[in-house]
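Q: Entry one of two.
A:
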Amino acid sequence: MTLAPNQAYAWTGQVLNALRGALHDAGFAEILPAILSKRFEPGARHSLAVLGDRALPTVRSIADDQGRPTVSAIGADYYYLPVSHCVEKQLALEFAERVYCVAPCLRLLMDGEHESGRHLYTFFQVEIEWRTESVDDVLTTIERVLATMAETILTRPSQELTMDKDAIGRIAALGRRPFVRLPFSDARDRVRGAGGSVNPHAVGDLTHAEENALSHEFDAPFWLTDYPEGVRDSLYRRNGSGTFATYDLVLPGGYGEVATGGLRPHSGDDIRQQARNLGPVVHDQYAAWKDRTALQTGGLGFGLERLIRYCAGRSDILELRFAHDQGPNATIDEGQRLCA
């Protein structure tokens, strides 16, 4: 049965309020996200906002060489739209100790993702970051935040929320600490026979079929840790073992990855070196900031709608699309896909 629209609103409000409260209890200050930026996100596939000169930009629909519809926009200036707030939240830590924001993001769907049940064009990322040099500190802190959030939902549910026995069990699992920590290499070995198409983001990453099989092996959230080079599309601290101090939080029961993060590169030189492996942009501004401040930070970003989908027990994330959302998410259930 499809989720009723009023329940999509109720679950979103319940999870968001409980998560904000848990982060506040853990000492995190909420900051406002930056919506537009002249800075290119390391490893990202950005979309652009075109600003008009005191008027709407001129937009033309044209066909490309193969007859496919495309759009041309002419305006006074352009900015990158956010795919995350990974760098912005680090910059904020020059003036704060522990921060988070609920950041609106726009990402292009890759092959197969319009049918995954958990990918959206526009979504919200709960970006969390603080001054730390310890992966253990990050993982235990986030586990505590989730446990507090789960307790709030279970003990103080809103009157509008319909929560059955299965939902209570799923949410209670968020507080079942400590979570298993599974090195990426071990995870690959466990699900190597699951098959699936090559991950469109990185050839060496788990396929969607492998991630789904792994998620079904657990009845509580678990961590994937110690990713090798060439798997992630962002910049992270290097481990001595040749892996990176990075991690994913995966939900059980086939709900899949809900958060991604890591410790940040230790120096400006390492930022430049890793950035060259991801594309032509070296990110000198970010590297110079790292050299000037010498701040060492870590954190992660939660896919908010994915967390809500898990709590509500929905197979398709589109059931959580608000009635007031008339953006590109409305095209996903029509089988349409913007070109990546």
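Q: Entry two of two.
A:
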Amino acid sequence: MILKLLISLGFIYVFVIRYLYCIYIFQLNHYELRKYIKWLCKNRTNKRIIIPSLLSLISIVLLLYDINNPLVYPQGVLMVLSLLFIHFRQEKKKLKLTSRMIRLILVFLAVLVVSTWGCIYLLPTKYSLENTFLAISIIGNFVIYDLFFLAHLFVLPIERYLYDYYVNKARQKILSYNSLKVIGITGSFGKTSTKFIIGEILKKDYSVCVTPASYNTPMGLCITINKQLRNIDEFLICEMGACRIGDIQELCHIVFPDIGIITSIGPQHLETFGNLTNIIKTKFELIESLPKGGLAILNYDNYYIRNYRIKNDVKVLTYGIEHENVDYYALNIKYDQFGSTFEVRFPEGERYLFKTKLLGKHNISNILAAIALGDYLKINVRKIIHTVSTLEPVKHRLELKRFPNYCLIDDSFNANYEGFNNALDILNQFKNKRIIITPGLIELGDEQYTMNYRIGEKIARCTDYVVLVGKKQTKPIYNALLDNQYPSTSIYVTNSFEDGFKHVLNKFKSDFTVLLENDLPDQYNES
């Protein structure tokens, strides 16, 4: 009896750990069931899923055959031991017990209780207490995903109600602040950095509220508005993200922007957008949601932005580095590994010299957008110049860190093609040994192989040593390296950033620069 109870507790322990991993991945997929199911299908052979699933299937077969079968005991032991190799490792992010997650867990527990009573009712009456306990613990592991999906189905109406409540509350708050101006910023890349740069410049003359971190979803904006926006704030600066047509429009219907900035358009999130035309259309939802006479600030270096015909009546300011026929043009640019100096030609022809500690060409582009807005709002140019000189990099976005024996360029939050190329250009400026650790790019749909192959070709020209994270997803980069006669002895393939970084520190003792590029969240791990 005691042995059966211990085995039952083992199965329950496995159930709890598996459920926590289940909701952890669901959270990483932004609580989107469609994304989560797609992840499950893609990772069905992942050992963290397949091993417990197979063991629970075997346990069910044994249970159906004979609950007293002695093979159930070693099966339970194997189930618990499997967790030692599957689940006990450091995750990049922790499961966050948000209000939404707590609601999901509570509903799941309710479903679990009802299901347990159902099992007790259906199980043979001849089963003893310990046999019933064991049977339920085995069945629970077998139907864990069914229970999760059922709980999610029940919690959906609650989430829809709360979503509408918080959106309406945020919308009413925005509308009640008559003097508030809302700035919306979107783009395939560069929007977070541009947001913080604009925030720093506007703070010199105005009271501003800036959405924190990468808050760029409806709930992210609502949290900022409902909790942080004050009636003394003159500007609300909102980052706007999108994965599908209509996402930006949905955000605009919450905050009603007066000023719209598009930093870039490129092949990002192609898996959900389907094609580049949909991405262009979605980004310009911001500009076409502006009121008559609103302000659009556009990056005319970007081909797709430059050639789009805006359908509404707004004032347009343009900026660029590669195209001179713009309102704010950066020229005489000088880069090094410590920052940049550049001149900016303003609309009336005046030129001003700027210095920044931020690395790379695309950061100058982000600064130009902020300069254009600051100038439009009549902020003194000298104040703008001083603010630009004191800007600090956004964490994990081309953040240069110096250590006694090496330099680290932390670009781990970058996940786009243009940014990747820019980071390689910066790495190439360093004179010591140049190393990159990367899993490549994701969510590029049919372009996944081609674009990663191109990245691999550039890596071959800009680095001395390469660490690839994930054998399958970095195959295009690996092939490109070999096709460009990159020595195979200078390529190391691993399943985690942590192992790759340890390998670099052990192999190269000093005088090297390492670029961390696009550290993918845990749902993309191949291990």
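A: Comment on entry two: The first strand starts at residue 181 and ends at 186. The two ends are 38 Å apart (CA to CA).
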